[in-house]
Specification:
alpha/beta, about 35% strand, single chain, binds S-adenosylmethionine, 11 strands, four-stranded antiparallel beta sheet, 7 helices
Length: about 210
């Protein structure tokens, strides 16, 4: 019934988060979305943006995924349903409220193929010892990528977590122009990856960067 009604009008539930302010769960066109005051966090345009990136990656060669920024987990739905990706995904999010929302509102279930860790992504990559074939970096607080994720020491740790032929998919910015910090990250990636592709205005808004082949 709720999903039928949502074709007529969105129904919104709000939850307070220490990190992202007010989280809004909204029904839109028969599907639940997770939004903050100014940004779509999960499902909706965010999901289309990451799907655009995933479409460009040879997922048949990917045996493990690290997702930095779980949100409501829409990219996990895309991987599982649109790309039939059945292997292990490790997802990190700093916000326990977001993890609760992912589980309770978006039916994410932890099992042998989905590990969810509540931790600052910065600390996770510093202490991590595993390598992953695909690292998806989707770290936002509302409309902003926190500064720490545009610093090269974070990216050095990301490289250490990437397998030798690994791929990085970075949802980099909602800004109209690239900042100097983002240009520095791009130069760093170009110095370490075999190919680096930069896609601007994906879905009309975001800059998405894909680095492949260390
Ligand atoms: C756009 S949402 C992620 C959406 C998600 N990838 C999806 O597919 O639905 C951004 C997420 O980054 C998380 N985040 C922001 N800063 C973080 C940090 N320092 N460490 C870990 N997660 C962080 C936020 O809590 C939020 O859940």
């Amino acid at each position: 019934m709720t999903s039928l009604l949502s074709y007529l009008y969105p129904i919104t539930k709000t939850i307070k988060s220490e990190y992202s302010g007010t989280l809004e769960i909204t029904w839109y066109n028969g599907k639940k979305h997770l939004n903050t005051k100014n940004a779509n966090y999960s499902y909706g345009s965010l999901q289309r943006i990451l799907k655009f990136g995933l479409d460009k990656i040879a997922l048949n060669k990917v045996n493990s995924v690290l997702l930095l920024g779980l949100g409501g987990g829409s990219v996990i739905e895309t991987l599982r349903k649109d790309f039939n990706y059945a292997k292990v995904i490790t997802a990190i999010d700093i916000d326990p409220k977001i993890i609760e929302v992912a589980k309770n509102e978006f039916n994410l279930v932890e099992d042998q193929t989905l590990k969810i860790i509540c931790l600052d992504a910065l600390r996770f990559v510093q202490s991590n010892t595993e390598t992953f074939d695909l690292i998806i970096i989707d770290l936002f607080i509302d409309v902003t990528v926190p500064d720490a994720f545009l610093k090269l020491n974070f990216w050095s740790d990301v490289l250490k977590a990437s397998s030798s032929n690994g791929t990085v998919l970075f949802n980099a910015s909602l800004e109209k122009t690239k900042s100097q910090a983002l240009n520095d990250v791009i130069d760093f990636l170009k110095a370490h990856f075999y190919t680096v592709d930069i896609f601007e205005k994906v879905n009309g808004t975001n800059t998405v960067i894909i680095g492949s082949g260390l």
